[in-house]
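Journal club side-thread
Mid-discussion, someone asked how the predicted structure for our own chain would compare to the paper's figures. Pasting it here so we can look after the session.
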Amino acid sequence: MAGHSKWHNIKHKKAAQDSKKAKVYTKIGKIIQMSAKLGADPNLNPSLASALDKAKYYNLPKDVIQRAITKGSGQNNNENLEEVFYEGYGPSGIAILIKTITENKNRSSGEIRSIITKFGGSMGEPGSVSWQFLEKSFFLISGKIEILNDKGKEIEKINKVNFSQIEEDAIISGAEDIISLENEYKIIGDKTDFLKIKNYLKENKYKIEDNGIEYIPQNTIDLDEKGIEKLYRLIDELEDNDDVDQVYHNLNG
């Protein structure tokens, strides 16, 4: 799947040591703070709604969430956080789009340039890579939710759904595309339809494992096994940077 996501990696490392958990908390807090600049009501702000979903998944304390919203919405903000994109090329000319949330653009730029250069890539000028990507909303669906009652206790059960069933609902929701993955379905829609699609899926009891806004490449390229390994080592190091939120690329697969 094109578009490498830090949150996908973290999902499979949920039992990591406290130091890694603290880094995740810090990153999500910054995402919430940045998203809240567009409004403190998640019902009117898709970016904040997505950030709060991530916060819930990773069990961020309520006070951390509220403090980030308060800062971002301008009620108490001493940090000048900015959303900054860096563009460049990785192994074999792979296009890389890097989204950061930072209070120091010069520091972020220097650190990202150093990482990309280390792996034989190069930084690009603004617009040199981003034109290849489209901004879309996405939803990862694992099945439908059924609430069971076991001795007075409600238990959430996830039932698998077939492609034709979810395809029909995806079309009704206003989505543009649906991709069948190994254990999930990925629904893709216009950025402006994020809340409409999400509300429809929730109303119809679909289990949303992840959702948000991402950049999808219009065209992809292939790499051999050695090139793929080098690319993912580059992405892992970029994502380990405190300021990096997301890394997108146009690798096919």
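Post-session note: Strands lie at 82-89, 95-102, 122-124, 133-150, 153-159, 177-180, 185-190, 206-217, 244-249.
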